[in-house]
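Justification of computing resources. Each target in the renewal requires a structure prediction run like the one illustrated here; the chain below, 360 residues long, is used simply to show the kind of job we budget for.
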Amino acid sequence: MPDFAVSRLFSVLSCLGVTEVERLSILQAAGLSTAHVPPFLPDSPALVLDVQDVALTQMILLYNYPAHQPVRLLTEAGAVHELTLGDWQVGELGSLYILAREPGYAFETFQEIIAHLRAPDGCPWDRKQTHQSLRQHLLEETYEAIEAIDENDPAKMVEEFGDVLLQIFLHAQIGYEAGEYRLADVVKGISDKIIRRHPHVFGEVLVDGVGEVLTNWEAIKKEERKKSGASEKGILDGLPRALPGLQLALEYQDRAARVGFDWPEVEGVLDKIREEIDEVRRAETPDELAGELGDLFFALVNLARWKKVDAEVALHKTNLKFKRRFGHIEKRARELGRALPEMSLDEMDALWNEAKSQGL
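Resulting structure tokens:
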């Protein structure tokens, strides 16, 4: 850095009253012109020099900071103002000093917490975990995150996404300790993949709609496999078999439909459902019945796909509806002093209809 630049920097810091420069990030505001998020850690102080576009800079900073975030502005006229990020007005040009947020808002800080948990002086339970022992936790936390999405509960989403993130960081730490990979490798791998598979965003490729995006995506994946020496995969390969059955059926059907393997009209799907119901009726052995029921479920997923209904979500909602209505039966039975096993089906059905009439 030239001497005059160093001299000016110290002058700016002095005017702003900044005496502690440890972990201080410094950048020219022009460096934010193409950014979408701030390129520095929110739990460290930062100095943005020579802001000429307040609205743009403010919008980018608000990605990682709340509107009430304390900042200091050294105006072009040499005045220093103490204000909040949200109060910063268009036209107030100059250099902006952003105070560090409390610890815990940066990925690196969280990475240190996880490394500490796994260290010799950390938590005995966390130190004992392996990829396999954590497998079920990752699955459970993922489903809890999905439940938060289904409930459209932002506060719950924040909590559950954090629990999923914990699992990712734990697996990355275990991978590092085993000499397999680092968290940085995980981030680098997915960053490269996203950029590589979005040439219409990060390159010069032009696309016309979602259809072309998906076509390009599959072509890029095919080229990736070719370069890596991997064997040629079929259209239905690459999907995890651990996916829930309804979701896996939908993914298979979607992929097959992309290359034209699909009914020309929804009537064909309805006819197939009728055919499968007849075959269920004719099934004579348990194995035959299981196979025919599987075919029927598959055909019903196809109908849901044609009608743009998520079969997994639809069944989940019906499960919850059944739980609510059966819960009403249990509640009313207690109120009546009756035990469920002693009630007739007609009596329970009447309570079920009572629940329906109440909108349960």
